Amino acid sequence: MKYLVMSVSALALFAGPASAVVLDEFNGSQIVEDVAVNPPPPSASEQDGLAVPGGSRDLEAQNDDGIESGTDVVVGSGLLAVNNAAGNTGNGIVTWDGDDDDPLNVATSGLGGLDLLGGSPAGNLFFFFDVVQNDGVFDYDLTVWDTLGGSATAGGQIGTLSPDDSTIRETLAFSLFSGVDFTEVGAIQLAFSTDDAAGDIAIDNFGTQVVPLPAALPMMLGALGGLGFLGWRRKRA
Ligand SMILES: [Ca+2]
Ligand SMILES: [Ca+2]
Ligand SMILES: [Ca+2]
Ligand SMILES: [Ca+2]
Fold first, then answer.
1. CATH number of the domain enclosing 56
2. From 21-25, 122-126, 154-158, 224-228, the region with the lowest mean pLDDT
3. Which of 13, 74, 102, 114 has its CA 20 to 30 A from that of 52?
4. Are residues 109 and 181 located together in one domain of the fold?
């Protein structure tokens, strides 16, 4: 009976309406580059008409070294990538701040007061994104602004993934962003930087979820199901 109760609550978490919400699947095609070659893409751009918070995504590339090709930030093939050419380090910045026609500056109320809680307690929620490729050490910072003047930044570090590694899900608890009203979100920014020359990273599916590692849940449910089955067999025998 104890197992049954645990299984039901785990299922409720997994199937709940707020269990995971993808804010940006990184669809569309958008490229920015700092230290441009012929013909130069801009170092920052905004793409409108997207199924993301505020309908628009700002991208910016910041290169540290000034060597040809420098730093690219690319949305394509359903992923966001930050790519540094040989000998280069740099930053890639993605901002969701509505259609402000200004990819270099943050419209801190541009999302108009988005409710990221969806009825869940803030203490249960996490931001997440999936790292699908990384050949350098990248630091990342996530900044959230609310429309009431609050803002906070939290972040982490992502180590190198070997080609054989599976995707890594990075998570950041909402509780790290003290002072931010998550029912009145005005802008969100995710910034990646590396000190490793030629470091490249690719991520997918920036969003929110109610538990830090939902990928563990199906395994747990499977294990619980197995235990329940064993118990049932024993009683019948
Ligand atoms: Ca995608
Ligand atoms: Ca914008
Ligand atoms: Ca625009
Ligand atoms: Ca902007």
1. 2.60.120
2. 224-228
3. 13
4. yes
Q: Are residues 226 and 127 in the same domain?
A: no
Could you tell me if 6 and 78 lie in one domain? no
| Residue entry with tokens 């969100």 | 188
- Rounded CA-CA distance 109/30 in Å is 23
Q: How far, in Å, from the CA of 169 to the mean position of ligand 1?
A: 14
Mean pLDDT, range 10-18, rounded to an integer: 43
What is the distance in A from the centroid of ligand 2 to the CA of 213? 30
Q: Backbone dihedral region of 194: left (phi > 0), alpha (psi from -120 to 50 degrees) or beta?
A: beta
- Ligand 1 geometric centre to CA of 79 (Å): 5
Task: Compute how many other C-beta atoms are within 10 angstroms of the C-beta atom of residue 17.
Answer: 9
* H or E element that contains 221: helix 216-236
Q: Enter the pTM of the model.
A: 0.81
Provide the domain count of the chain: 2
Looking at the chain, the number of H-run helices and the number of E-run strands are 2, 13
Distance 22 CA to ligand 1 centre (A): 10
Report pLDDT digits (tens) over 111-149.
Answer: 999 999 988 888 899 999 999 999 999 999 999 999 999
